[in-house]
Design a protein that fits this description.
41% helix, globular
């Protein structure tokens, strides 16, 4: 019985996360990382703005991040992607990522940066604690 409850709870977490406004902006950040790698292989440097990266982007892949303002800026050794909610509500998060492809998040109106906590929810979707589940033999 406990195993069923635990697994259903984790499955609902994945289902609910897919409908959060943050899921689209996180997908856009992942897309930027992929396209930046392609851009770097062609030009030997990273794009310093979304406008510079635009010829390689699908029109909807980054522009369809309703509720968030997404920015891409050049940095000395790479680039920075920031995502800020257009309207802050309780539970709102800001996101930061760079050429390391690690996503950082901050709950609140302050911008996330490379010293704010790493986003952990992705590890659960890739078989983290939900993937292990409960088994009677582990008691």
């Amino acid at each position: 019985m406990a195993a069923a409850i635990l697994n259903v709870g984790c499955g609902l977490g994945r289902l609910v996360d897919g409908f959060r406004p943050e899921s689209r902006v996180l997908a856009a950040i992942r897309t930027i990382h992929v396209v930046q790698a392609e851009y770097f292989s062609q030009y030997r440097h990273y794009a310093a703005s979304l406008r510079e990266l635009a010829p390689l982007l699908d029109d909807n892949s980054v522009s369809n991040v309703s509720g968030y303002r997404l920015t891409l800026t050049g940095a000395q050794s790479g680039y920075i992607v920031s995502a800020m909610p257009k309207v802050f509500r309780p539970g709102s998060r800001t996101f930061y990522s760079d050429q390391t492809m690690v996503v950082h998040e901050h709950y609140g109106s302050e911008p996330a940066n490379n010293s704010t906590p790493r986003r952990r929810a992705a590890s659960m979707r890739q078989g983290g604690s939900c993937g292990r589940g409960f088994s009677p033999s582990s008691r």
